């Protein structure tokens, strides 16, 4: 029995020793410096763009409505194609309007005949009145009839003009050069005035791109609008929905009348040539405004930044003197004190424009700072770091 207790005690002691060694080994691993890569911050010249979501819009766009009623008798265009001003687009049954026109024309001719007869009667009575050969009453009637005949001519002309307008409106033509959309009616459909939309036409060259800016940026864009930019200057460019750069350069067409009081923004419109009709109304794009700031900028890799609660931080390497809790005791025992080593210090930064895989730093860093780029996921403020064993590059997109 005593042997049994002896063996049990031996096992327990061995287990305690293994546990203590494991804990010490784990503690040593935890306190080991984190391998990192550093990037030395230096001012440099950078070219970058301020970007704004934009929408392609037509410089002019109208819905085509019929001005007369009837059924569609003809469609004379290809949907989605460019049309010329005055080109015939639709015809509406004109039988009724042609009959009205013919009737008005006949009324005009009749009015001229009545005028001719009234003129002759008036001339005759005027001659007889000079020789006291006719009653004054007959002369007055003749003069009145002549005036009525003249008024009838005016009325007949107006009726004829109205009838001709209705007849002309039975043929619907393009109001300007532009791209015609998909027809909303087919041949045989009945159309009514004021309710039926036949189609939509919009100008296609040049095209406009609208985007909004913060009211604080108004002075900058007003200044840009006053400048006579070189046509070859790439101050305003756009990225297409597939991120391809559009091959035409833009210029400011207008800045909207007022600021939206709810959002504090104002609309800016750019104008772009569109010779190949690539730009289409309603298309989304990204407006790029070339930043003309020529001052040196501090730029670091984007992966070095860490976001916390909407704020951004980086870790910079600092030479610090590490003193353990029992350093005083060891010093008294004659142990040699540890020398300087690297520690990671967390610093809040203000970010500027993102340029490819880098970002401009507007505040928080200075030239010469060594920023941790790889290994930031394992760090906290005050972590011990080392560059002896370089860290593997962080996957793209992490660390920000």
Q: What spatial form do the alpha-carbon principal axes imply? A: rod-shaped
User: Mean pLDDT, rounded to whole units?
Assistant: 81
Based on CA atoms alone, the radius of gyration comes out at: 44 Å
Could you tell me how far the N terminus lies from the C terminus, measured between alpha carbons in angstroms? 65 Å
Give me the secondary-structure category.
alpha+beta
CATH C-level category of the domain at 51-59 and 202-290: Mainly Beta
How many H/I helices? Answer: 5
Portion of residues within helices: 25-40%
**Annotated CATH architecture of the domain at 51-59 and 202-290:** Beta Barrel
The largest sheet, given as strand count, sense and whether it forms a barrel, is: 8 strands, mixed
Beta-strand proportion: 25-35%
Q: What's the total count of β strands? A: 24
Question: In CATH terms, what is the fold-level topology of the domain at 51-59 and 202-290?
Answer: Elongation Factor Tu (Ef-tu), domain 3
Listing every helix as H and every strand as E from the N terminus to the C terminus, the arrangement reads: HEEEEEEEEHHEEEEEHEEEEEEEHEEEE
Low-confidence stretches: 23-29, 321-337, 394-400
Query: Going by CATH, what is the homologous superfamily of the domain at 51-59 and 202-290?
Result: Efflux pump adaptor protein, beta barrel domain
